[in-house]
Amino acid sequence: MKKFTLILLAFLLSIPLSAQYKPWTSAKQPLKEIKALKKQIKAPKFRKADYLITDFGAVGDGKTKNTEAFKKAIEKCSAEGGGRVVVPNGVFLTGAIYLESNVNLHLTDGSTILFSQDSNDYPIVFTRWEGMECMNYSSLIYAYEEENIAVTGKGTLDGNSDLDNWWFWCGATKYGYNTSRPGRQNPARAKLHEYMANRTPARERIFGDGWYLRPNFVQPYKSKNFYMADVLVKNSPMWNLNPVLCENVLIERVKVISHGPNNDGFDPEACKNVWIKDSYFDTGDDCIAIKSGRDEDGRDIGRPAENHIIENCEMKDGHGGVVIGSEIAGGAKNIYAIGNVMDSKNLDRALRIKTSSSRGGTIENVFFYNTKVGAYKEAAVRFNMHYEKPGNHIPTIRNIWVENLTVDKGGKYAVFSDAYESSPVTDFTMINAKMVGVQIPYKVDYLKNVTLKNVTVNGQPLTELKP
């Protein structure tokens, strides 16, 4: 017994301190962590050489398909050591664009890359669809295991999606679907869930033509040092900006306006060291949704969303402003949202954490600081452990810190929680929050270690959260 105790003690001492759960006791702690993290996240640097796509045969008339011109320019740029592939004024129609290492795809002011509506222009690649790995249409802009890549400039990326192209595949009549036209994703989505549950190798989960799984817009996959700045992104088939399993991601001054189905603005998935700042979102789904994979795929790969900063962003329409989940089976930790502004009668929640017992995983260390909210519909802060179907993997939500929150035109609840009795939301802190226009102060079930300091709802102090 003594020997076993010594072995156990040695094991516990071997665990790094950083891996041990320890809730914050002051905002100074996460603010210090943010300062250190910012020093690690940097934009890649590129060789000073420009490759004008018109020199490779591109024509900016909005009709000529320029897929080969983009491919040749990017390949030559990368082969010669990198630089900028420059898109001049004009409308350049193209199929999928593959970004190679050390290439900055630069859109000049007045330029538009218009993506083809023909699914044949998007080759089958290794990708993720709603957090599940598969072979499917390439994202409109895609990269796989590349380094030092960027999309910059004051031009426009137009996904060219509408009720007659891509969107109706979701199967909803409000997005153009009807039984007289082919195309509905539901059978393919069910098949992909089946593949995942059976742990069919990802490269054997082949979709594409006839399956109707819409591609995402921008998806660097297993890549390092991804930078995006200044561009306008609109009319995506599905998720807009979706780096997957990437490290060192910096997004700044980007504007995303896209109101189609599942048109999330920014979905970093199982990424490490991510900083998005000074950007604008007006979307048909979550403005920013942090993810780490769905169910078996998320748990088996086991990569959490880690070290994310969301700073000085503006959010309008969307299911949620800052959201963690629902494809969050790999977990999430160290998520810092600071200085953001949200305001829309169509915005459902300001901060939302959504997961389920089919996901599992641990979501911890979420810092929501200096946030100004105008209007929202459902809740300023929303915890949901019963999103979609249940399973056998009870999730954990802990160390959630909300400070300096103002709400001018609140919705139904200030705080809304739906958790498991066996796994309550633990260590929830709210400090200096002033919320007005709220119908019901709160609706909660299982919370543990709640701290409320200087919190008012409709002018009345909120001192406790009880079921």
UniProtKB/TrEMBL annotation:
PROSITE patterns: POLYGALACTURONASE (PS00502). One of its GO terms (molecular function) is hydrolase activity. It holds the Pfam family Glyco_hydro_28. Coiled coil: none annotated. InterPro entries: GH28_Enzymes, Glyco_hydro_28, PbH1, Pectin_lyas_fold, Pectin_lyase_fold/virulence, RHGA/B-epi-like_pectate_lyase. The keyword Metal-binding does not apply. This is Glycoside hydrolase family 28 protein. The lineage of its organism: Bacteria, Pseudomonadati, Bacteroidota, Flavobacteriia, Flavobacteriales. Belongs to the glycosyl hydrolase 28 family. It comes from Chryseobacterium caseinilyticum. Residues 53-105 form the Rhamnogalacturonase A/B/Epimerase-like pectate lyase domain.
